Amino acid sequence: MSDLRVRLLNETFSIHKLPPSRPIPPTVLGSPIFFVGRTKDELSIVCRADIPVSHAKTEENWACFMVEGPLDFNIIGVIARLSAVLAHAEVSIFSFSTFDTDYILVRQGDLLVAEKALKTAGFKL
After folding, report:
1. Which of 39-43, 78-82, 91-95, 104-108 has the lowest mean pLDDT?
2. Residue 122 and residue 2: Cα distance in Å, rounded?
3. How far apart are CA 18 and CA 45, in angstroms?
């Protein structure tokens, strides 16, 4: 797993929670990078911190690590290994995946600890 490259994105992100029936705000849809998840209980949105999302419960100031991909679907345990390293370092995460790769968000205040833990574990940053 040490051959995986993890890149820190330059943006700061926010994580938003809205009621499940709410439409995705147009401000989010116009953003160059965002992630949306909808269940029967909630609409969750991850987007750059400078994108306004009104009437949302919001967690602010998250940094984002992207596993450089594309990753093959046969690779096992990418998120598990990253999250285990960060859990051992007592860093809380929020993760999501796309077709090509995985993303791990950490609070900005934990960024230096997270970077050190990932490097020590053999991930290339």
Report:
1. 78-82
2. 5
3. 8
Dihedral in degrees, nearest 10, Cα atoms 109, 107, 74, 40: 170
Separation CA 122–CA 71 (nearest Å): 18
Q: How far apart are CA 62 and CA 76, in angstroms?
A: 26
Q: Is 6-120 a domain of CATH 2.30.110.20?
A: no
Residue 27, SS3? helix
CB-CB contact of 60 with 49 (8 Å): yes
Q: Which residues of 76-87 are buried (b: 16+ CB within 10 A; e: fewer)?
A: eebeebbbebbe
Peptide bond into 70 cis (omega under 30): yes
Could you read off the pLDDT of 9-26 as tens digits, one per residue? Answer: 999 999 999 999 999 999
**pTM for the model:** 0.89
Q: What confidence score (pLDDT) does residue 2 get? A: 54
Question: To the nearest whole percent, how much of the chain has pLDDT over 90?
Answer: 72
